[in-house]
Write a structure and sequence with these properties.
Helices cover 68% and strands 0% of the residues. By secondary structure, the protein is mostly helical.
């Protein structure tokens, strides 16, 4: 695996981990995935990793909704 692809995967993985944390850090991570799924600048990380941001975003959203019933995080893509 080339180093740039590895870096992209690390960035995406860290954002996924951050999305499971509380408050502002989670909101920032969710916004990262929302912007990537909407074709924003963040999408470049997914392009480098050969991943579809919408698929990753959808999987994370589904997992988050089923594991955090008491915590409210806005998981919508505009």
């Amino acid at each position: 695996m080339d180093s740039i692809k590895h870096l992209a995967l690390v960035v995406i993985a860290q954002a996924a981990l951050d999305s499971r944390k509380k408050a502002a850090q989670s909101a920032d991570a969710v916004a990262f995935f929302q912007r990537a799924a909407a074709g924003g600048d963040e999408k470049v990380w997914f392009d480098l990793a050969d991943l579809r941001p919408g698929a990753v975003f959808g999987g994370l959203r589904e997992r988050q909704e089923t594991s955090n019933e008491g915590r409210r995080v806005k998981w919508e893509c505009s």
